[in-house]
Write a structure and sequence with these properties.
The chain is an alpha/beta fold. Helix content is 37%, strand content 20%. The protein has an eight-stranded mixed beta sheet, with helices on both faces. Helix 7 (240-250) packs parallel to helix 8. Residues 331-349 have a biased composition (Polar residues). Residues 100-269 form the Methyltransferase domain. Residues 331-351 are annotated as: Disordered.
Length: 379
Amino acid sequence: MSTNSNAQKAVTFIPAMRKPKCLFLLLPCLAIGSFILYTRYSGQNWTELNIGIRGSAKECGSISRQEIRANRTEAPPPPLPDVNPIPSDEVLDQMSHKEVQDFYHRYINSPQATCSSVIRMGKVTDGGWELCDDPLYKPIKGDCLVYSYGINFDFSYDQDMVSYGCDVHAFDPSMKTAPNVYQGNLYFHATGVAAKNGTVNNPTTGWWQLYTIAEHRKQHHHLPNQRQLDIVKMDVEGYEHESLMLALDDGSLDDVRQLAFETHVTWSATDPSKEEYIKYLGLLRNVYDHGFRIYLTHRNYVWSAFESVINKGRKFTKCHEIHTVNIKLKNTPSQPQTRPESLSFASEAQKQKEHQLQMKVIESELVEYKNLGLRYSPR
C-alpha cells in the first residue's frame, strides 16, 4: 500500500510542480507591463528616468514623447533629386564603343513609368502607335490636340485619334498632296518638321517646306497660351533628333502630355558608330530632363535588325518607336479633367470657331503649296 500511495503522490506531484514554473515566467512579464503602463500614464517619460547607464537617457541624445509627436506633424522631408540616368557626353566619351552600345540598348528598352491602359491607335503593323489611356496621363476626350508628323499615306493612327475625341493635325511634305481637311477634325498639311524653317530638295519627292514645331504652333494659333498641345507623334525618317532637341530647348513641348517618336541611330547595315550612339543618348537625356518617361518601346526587328560585330553573337535593332508620358503633367484621377476656360475647346461654339480658323490656315497653305511647286518646277 505504501508503495502505491507513494506512486500516486508522485503522479499528482509532477503536474503540480509545473504550475509554479509558469508563474515564474508570467510574473516578470506582468512586472514589465506594469512598469510600461506606469511610465506612460504617470506623466513620466523614459527619457526622464535616470537608468544609470552612462548617465541619463537625455545625455545619450534621446528625445521625449512630446518631441516625437511634434515631429510627426512636420512636413515630410523633400524627395531626393531626380538624377538623369544618362551620363554626360564627357563620361560617355571615356567609355568603349561596346560599353556605349550596351548602355544605349539597355536604356532605351527599360520602362521608366507605368501605364495601366495602353491602346493601339491605327494599324497593328507599321503605321500604328500607342496611346497611354491611364487616368494619370490620358488626354481629355473631346478636347485634345494632336500633332502627327510623318504620314506616308497611312492615316490610320490619326483617324483613331479623331475617333478618340481629338483634333489632329497631320504633317508630311513627301506625299505630293495639297493641304486639305482629310476627315472631320483631321487636317492635313503638306509641310514637315525640322530644326529651322526653310526648304530642302529631296531627290525622290522634290522640294519640301519645313518648319519648327514652334512655328507650326504659331501658324495654327496653338501657342501654349492659346491651346494645349496634348500629344506629339513623330516619325520623320531622321529629322526627329534635331527637331525634338530644338523643341525641348525652346519650350514648345512643355505642355505636351505624351510624346512618341522614332529613333534611327544609324542608316548603315552594321553597328552604329560610338558617336551616333552618343548623339541619340543626348536626345534621350534631354527628353528625360523635360519630364518625359519611357513607358513602352517597340523594336523593329523586321526592317532594321543587325548582327553586331563589336558584340559578338548579339542582335540589335537600329530603329525604335519610343512612347513617353510627361510626369510633370499628371492628372488627378479623383477629380474631373478640366482646362482653364481660355484653353478649352470643348463646347460646340468653340469647336466651330476653331474649325473656321483652321480652314483659313489651310487656304493660306494652299497658296504657299502652289507657289512652292511653281518656284521649283523645271522650266
